[in-house]
What we know:
The protein is 21% helix and 26% strand. The protein has one domain (9-155). It has helices at residues 20-30, 70-73, 82-89, 97-106; strands at 9-11, 14-16, 46-47, 51-57, 91-94, 114-120, 125-129, 138-143, 153-155. It has a four-stranded antiparallel β-sheet. Strands 4-6-9 form a three-stranded antiparallel β-sheet, with helices on one face.
Amino acid sequence: MPNxxxxxxxxxxxxxxxxxxxxxxxxxxxxxxxxLPLNCPPPKAxxxxxxxxxxFVNSDxxxxxxxxxxxxxxxxxxxxxxxLECQACGLSLYTKKQDAIEVKKKIPRLRKLxxxxxxxxxxxxxxxxTPSHNSQCHYTWWMHINQQPWNYFQVI
Length: 156
């Protein structure tokens, strides 16, 4: 078990810390995420710190096209609110392999996809817990623009 300070907590196996809000505001002001809507990533997103995460991908091995946000895939799409638009600018991840497997069973369009596992290094961006009715362990990842996650995610 990692050493946790009084401001840290664990959700779905990810250690979260209070410094995330500060880190997010610095990253966004430096332009490390490219063009994003105002307040995106959200202030409560936290810096990545060697978390093991799971993602749905088409290819084995994963390719750059497996790491394109919904917003980039559908640039003209309108979102009902800024929170959903911001999430569409990020990438969906899961903290638990079993959770990803269960979501894959529930959602028909995901059944043909593969599950890839990767470790998010401290400089890969920020994440925020964004649970849905399909998964309590869903996170959104806003990666830094120079990341090449296809090099550190492997299909399992």
